[in-house]
Amino acid sequence: MTTEWSELLDRLLALQSIDSKIRRLDQVLTRAPGEVSQREAAMASIDEKIKKVADRTRLLRAQILLRENELKTHEKKIEKLQEQAAELKTNKEYIASRSEIANVRGECDRLQNEVLKILEVVEQADAKIKELEGDRKHESDRIDQLKAEMASKLEDVKKDRDALASTRPAAMEDIPKEQLELYERARKARGTAMAALEGAYCSGCGEPQTRNDMYAVQNRTRLVLCRGCNRILYQP
Ligand SMILES: [Zn+2]
To answer: From the CA of 214, how far away is ligand 1's center (Å)?
Structure first.
């Protein structure tokens, strides 16, 4: 059993070496698009902010227009009152007309002040939009750059990965079904199927092993699964 298990362990370690290389390449393949989608999400959030600010400035501009129309009406009214003033007969009528003109002028001043204040806010919002558009361009340039880099790099990585994957069936050929199942179960659950024993501990999860198991791993007498993570243990 000892020699048999020792040979089987070597086969499992060979398979594990292939699988860990495949895993590293898979990480490269999935991480790169991850950064792109992260930046695309950042860009979408910038777009949303730009839209919000733009919507607000549109409302503010409408309010300015409203006040400007009101101002025009008031100015016409003042002109009319001034024309009428020339034909007034009594002092009382004249005083009443002057007071009315003063009222309308006061209203015009108020509207003009409001327009200035709103314009100030609109200018700030326009500056904010410009700033956000700068951020957006930065993200979009980086996405283009990443995509270009990825296209050429990932092609090579994928080729390497597929080449490695094609060597798996041969590596699995002489491993009995039962052990292969234990191996695959740990690989699917943990990412890696095997873990080195470090002293009394599993290097995969840190779980301490019994003295018996430790000896078995060190002397390659039987298959030992870590009691914490179910990885197949080996002595490095
Ligand atoms: Zn473990």
So the answer is: 13
One DSSP character per residue, 83-131 reads HHHTT--SHHHHHHHHHHHHHHHHHHHHHHHHHHHHHHHHHHHHHHHHH
Q: Ligand 1 mean position to 28 CA, how many Å? A: 25
pLDDT tens for each residue of 43-77: 999 999 999 999 999 999 999 999 999 999 999 99
Rounded Cα distance between 140 and 148, Å, is 12
* Average pLDDT, integer, range 177-203: 96
Instruction: Classify residue 12 as exposed, middle or buried by CB count within 10 Å of its CB (0-12, 13-18, 19+).
Output: buried
**Residues near ion ligand 1 (Cβ under 5 Å):** 202, 204-205, 207, 226, 228-229
Report how far residue 91's alpha carbon sits from residue 83's, in angstroms, rounded to the nearest whole number.
16
Output phi, psi for 48, to 5 deg. -65, -45
Question: Two tokens at 150?
Answer: 């990825």
Distance 224 CA to ligand 1 centre (A): 11
For each of the domains in the chain, give its residue range(s) and CATH number, in order of start. Answer: 26-170 (1.10.287.1490), 177-234 (no CATH)
Distance 3 CA to ligand 1 centre (A): 24
d(CA 233, CA 223) in angstroms, rounded, equals 8
Centre of ligand 1 to C-alpha 227, Å, is 6
